[in-house]
Design goal:
Layout lengths: L1 E6 L7 H12 L7 E3 L17 E2 L4 H13 L2 E9 L5 E9 L2 E6 L9 H4 L8 E4 L2 E7 L6 H4 L9 E5 L7 H15 L2 E5 L2 E3 L4 E3 L3 E3 L5 E4 L6 E6 L2 H10 L9
Parallel strand pairs: 1-2, 2-4, 3-4, 8-9, 9-10
Antiparallel strand pairs: 1-15, 4-5, 5-6, 7-8, 10-13, 11-12, 13-14
């Protein structure tokens, strides 16, 4: 499966400008099966979403994702801050296919930044299948919690997608934890972070694809907007799991 990891400099509270930035990157990779965007890619990481988050039913960013999936015959994923009909806010990781939408609501809200005060935490895991690959959807701070990432029975998913706004001050943790999650779950990790800065912090990126034994298959240039191309090989995944059957010894 061909992937495009879209590492962008998110412009604060400006979905139209961020859509334009993503479209410029999309034009560089026109044949990917899956395009992956960062966390809250349309607005920036908003811990106070009132006035920033779009109503889910009228989201310009989500409508754009649906349009692109249909036009390109691809899947596209990334998280958005959305307001629900009951007035609550969700950090919702959407996986959009030509035929429909699946989603995951971020479970571990970033209490250090106050995200837990304004967003409703999700309580369910989401595994999405696309073109024969099973993806576990997770978001940013979830990366720090291995039990949540180690969900389910052995071999229940083939790759974890982490979309993030992970600050440069903790870049080393990003690099270590993404590789650890791939090794301990014997799966691919697709990790997409943003670059640039917002009102509170700066971001280096470090988007990457990591294989089931912890090797970096492809890595973005730090501090640079980039459409990173990578290939996820189910053949290599199956060989790795057969050669060293660690998953059969894991705790359920």
């Amino acid at each position: 499966m061909k992937l495009a990891l879209l590492q962008i400099d998110i412009q604060w509270g400006n979905p139209q400008e961020n859509i334009a930035r993503v479209e410029r990157l999309l034009s560089q990779v026109t044949d990917a099966n899956l395009y992956v965007l960062p966390e809250m890619w349309a607005t920036g990481f908003a811990t106070e979403p009132a006035g920033i988050a779009e109503n889910e039913s009228h989201s310009v960013a989500l409508a754009w994702m649906k349009q692109q999936a249909r036009l390109r015959g691809c899947a596209i994923c990334g998280s958005l801050a959305v307001k629900m009909p009951d007035g609550s806010f969700r950090n919702r990781h959407y996986f959009v296919k030509p035929e429909g939408v699946e989603y995951y609501d971020k479970h571990h809200l970033f209490s250090h930044g106050g995200e837990d005060k304004t967003f409703e935490a999700g309580q369910e895991h989401t595994i999405v299948e696309w073109k024969g690959v099973r993806f576990l959807l997770l978001t940013c701070y979830d990366l720090r919690f291995p039990v949540w990432s180690r969900y389910g029975r052995a071999g229940e998913y083939d790759a974890i997608i982490y979309v993030a706004n992970w600050p440069a001050s903790r870049q080393q943790a990003w690099d270590v934890l993404t590789h650890a999650r791939a090794i301990e779950n014997q799966c691919y990790v697709i990790a997409v972070n943003r670059v640039g800065s917002d009102q509170k912090t700066s971001y280096q990126g470090g988007s990457m694809l990591i294989d089931p034994i912890g090797r970096t298959v492809a890595e973005s240039i730090k501090n640079t907007e980039q459409a990173l191309e990578a290939v996820l090989s189910m053949e290599n995944l199956e060989k790795a799991r057969l050669r060293f059957q660690v998953l059969s010894d894991r705790d359920e």
